[in-house]
Design brief:
The protein is built from six helices and no strands. The chain has 118 residues and is mainly α. The protein starts with a helix and ends with a helix.
């Protein structure tokens, strides 16, 4: 796989993870319901947020200029930060943070990644 193909795969991995999250949130009738009232869905969403984080880290390792250049509006520190909280603060992670990420931040990230893969 060429470096550009690996970079494109990172963006596709992010898009796939976001698509799964959106599907589960819709099936649960909203982010709040999915996070606060369905432990299996919350766990699955957290896992996909970790996939997004790892894809972002991999992308930075492949080409540190790719993400800022191709997705200038993405909250890269926030992407990395949510992974820290899921891994290390799992027992004290405020559900409202996850609801905010799903409701307000994933759409922009999805749109930026989709734009970069065109």
């Amino acid at each position: 796989m060429t470096p550009s193909e690996r970079i494109a795969k990172c963006f596709r991995d992010v898009l796939d993870a976001i698509s799964l999250i959106e599907t589960w949130v819709e099936a649960s009738r909203g982010a709040d319901q999915a996070i606060r009232h369905d432990v299996k869905t919350r766990s699955a969403i957290e896992r996909q947020l970790l996939v997004i984080r790892e894809a972002a880290i991999r992308l930075d390792r492949l080409d540190p200029t790719a993400a800022p250049r191709l997705t200038p509006g993405a909250d890269r520190p926030g992407i990395r930060g949510i992974g820290y909280f899921i891994r290390h603060k799992y027992d004290d992670l405020d559900a409202s943070i996850l609801v905010d990420v799903i409701g307000d931040r994933l759409i922009g990230l999805r749109d930026a990644c989709a734009q970069s893969t065109r």
